[in-house]
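Hi everyone, sorry if this is the wrong subforum. Our group has a chain we'd like a structural model of before ordering constructs, and none of us has done structure prediction before. Sequence below.
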Amino acid sequence: MKALLAMPDGLQHRMFTPAQLKELSELADIDTARTVPDLAAASDAELAEVEVLLTGWGSPAVDADALERMPRLRAIVHTAGTVRFVATDAVWERGDVAVTSATEANAVPVAEYTLAQILLAGKRSLAREARYRAERAVTPAAATEAGIGNHGGVVGLIGASRIGVLVAEHLARFDLEVLITDPFVGAEQIAALGARKVEPEELYSRADVVSLHAPDVPATQGMVTAELLALMRDGTTFLNTARPALVDIDALRAELVSGRLSAVLDVHDDLAPDDPLWDLPTVSITPHIAGSQGNELHRMGESALEEVRRLASGQPARFPVDPARRAMEA
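Answer:
Right subforum, don't worry. Here is the predicted structure as tokens:
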């Protein structure tokens, strides 16, 4: 089985451990020391033999021209999340190329990060740290303030996506009430997660922490509106590990600058260097670290390696991308 690493130079050493690369070379006819960052620059002879492409962040798009030069191609194994920038419409139109992604593996650290931030938000950690830094003393009554803590608190999850489901499963271990809003997931499915399906208005108005887990598609852009943010109670926290386009940033900024809400923002592509959000003590801004980082990339490498194992043994893919839902892959 001829395979090719169609990705930027050196990426294979970040995505795979030496042991994983060794196993990859045993499963397929592949040069794991070499990548092909540009399919157009590869020789016709080499591409004519390729059956499996391993791709990742920054990989070249597999378009009609590339497909024509790879008549034996039967699988694109993506070591990252969304395949929308790699598998073009031509791939799906051809119909005989399986496409897999490591979205499930990448969801794990995002859910872990989200859980940690939710529990900290339950303690009102951002606002209380800001007060502590300003006063340099512990407020005597702080420990007995109403509405603080993770016993009996309410967490609202927007979207029962892969990550949303993982977060709900994590939260089931705690003494928290979990509310989920998602128009495409039924009440019974949500109840099986130990949560309750509600309309957005109830979620925003009741939750101590609102965490966003919807995909970035035209229908969801701007879904977090000024009206919904206004329903959040004073002192509660908004958490975004999804995409910035889903939120009315002007409305969120106004709420945060006023001091009424706190926020944890891991996605914020459009923040200008002089945006006031950078200097607010009740806003945590992290540089898109919720997703796989460092050694966590090897989990995605292992997911891709498992797909190659299955291809080599004639088994179906474990995490195939559904053509009908490919635009929603995170």
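For your construct planning: The first strand starts at residue 3 and ends at 5. The mean pLDDT is 95.
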